[in-house]
DNA sequence: ATAGGGTTAG
């Protein structure tokens, strides 16, 4: 009943737009504050204390200064310092002194300035923690973009008496090295897994990660070779399931060609199943090769398999991307005739595409149609809906949908939060965005890099340096590793705001971690330094880039 | 892990 009411209310907005316009006309802050007093996203007239905390970096501060432009953010490696600063603040106020957690102790050692050049292993010998599997997994997550720190810790952990790496820890290490493209070391770890007295450590799980990472780096042939050799070398069966995993990796990383080749080559030895065909059809559709996709569907039929929702949905998506909605409708009809009704994924794709091409009324019509069909929306669907509403200027409707989700029995996930945070920032609702980040914590929904990216961008743009520092710290606390994309975002954003010194700090830090930003970013930084006549800094950047491009990863010296 | 997101734009 309630749901029904809401939909009609939503759809009615598209025609009269009365309510919407009324809200929109009022730009006065006070009014919007009074009108929205909802639990999650509302803005209160008084800054809530946690926002103050967020903004002040210490518990219960009195006021928020506006001059945070002048605040110079410490380089990332000295977060530990600021962390100490924090705990001092706390212990002054409270009698109880919180003991430092093991993860933070490890973090402190790994962040020592010289650690990445020198010996992480030796540094850690002074670190007084008890290694457990969960600690290892947490460290690997927190340093998933800093392979030499992660690897140094990994080696050290292995040397600790009473501890042995589990299959999960090994797989996590393999994945970190693959992510950072340190493939030779990655294979070394895999071979070590094989040699271990504990047998069966290398599994399809391990090899799937390897294939995915290789494909992601454009090393398609190597991914295929890894598959072909894995039974012989590591005893991992090359069955249908494993082949699907390989083809999925190839297709997802944009090489339908390699996937197709594998398919033809292995057709006689490994029996394909319906999933195999769906993966290939998806790949062809993604590459806009409609003829090949159709041929594959015919082959699928001949080979005793029937096209299903997934098969048709791949075509639906491809035609959506072409903007050919007439063809989309034809396929939807065909699906129903063949007894594969569109499901929530199909509807999400159609709605999202319509919204993207500014056909909002039609997009909302899909929402109606879906409910009529008895198809229940899920979190990803809501995320799309929120996004298109926000993008078409209907932010309040987006907020309404966001808040109604849980009433509809759908839990909000990271993607939904990320979408809502981006939307809020897009509509200059900075406070709401921060409030949403806080709500994630309360709902035990872990943020990821994408959660922080738009917030960091806002900080750079508005020169909110204090908040920037706090957010970066927040990331570390939540085990979100800073990746190249984030460094690029920071460097470019800070350059644009004339904060070259800070941009340089981040640049140096990125290089120190073995992540060299692209040429365009380096150029931007150098030009900015030239403009400001900072010749010395310019030279430093130049030499940093050169030293790092010569040996892309300095080998780690571990005993 | 077979199909769905955003990201980044002055």
Automatic annotation (TrEMBL):
Coiled-coil region(s): none
InterPro entries: PPR_rpt, PROP1-like_PPR_dom, TPR-like_helical_dom_sf
Annotated ranges, domain PROP1-like PPR: 347-525
Statement: the UniProt record of this protein carries the keyword Repeat: yes
Residue ranges of the TM segments: none
Keyword terms: Repeat
Signal peptide positions on this chain: none
Residue ranges of PPR repeats: 166-196, 273-307, 308-342, 343-377, 378-412, 413-447, 483-517
Pfam families from the UniProt entry: PPR (PF01535), PPR_2 (PF13041), PPR_long (PF17177)
Entries under PANTHER family matching the protein: PENTATRICOPEPTIDE REPEAT-CONTAINING PROTEIN GUN1, CHLOROPLASTIC, PPR_LONG DOMAIN-CONTAINING PROTEIN
Family: Belongs to the PPR family. P subfamily.
Descriptive protein name: Pentatricopeptide repeat-containing protein
Source organism per UniProt: Cardamine amara subsp. amara
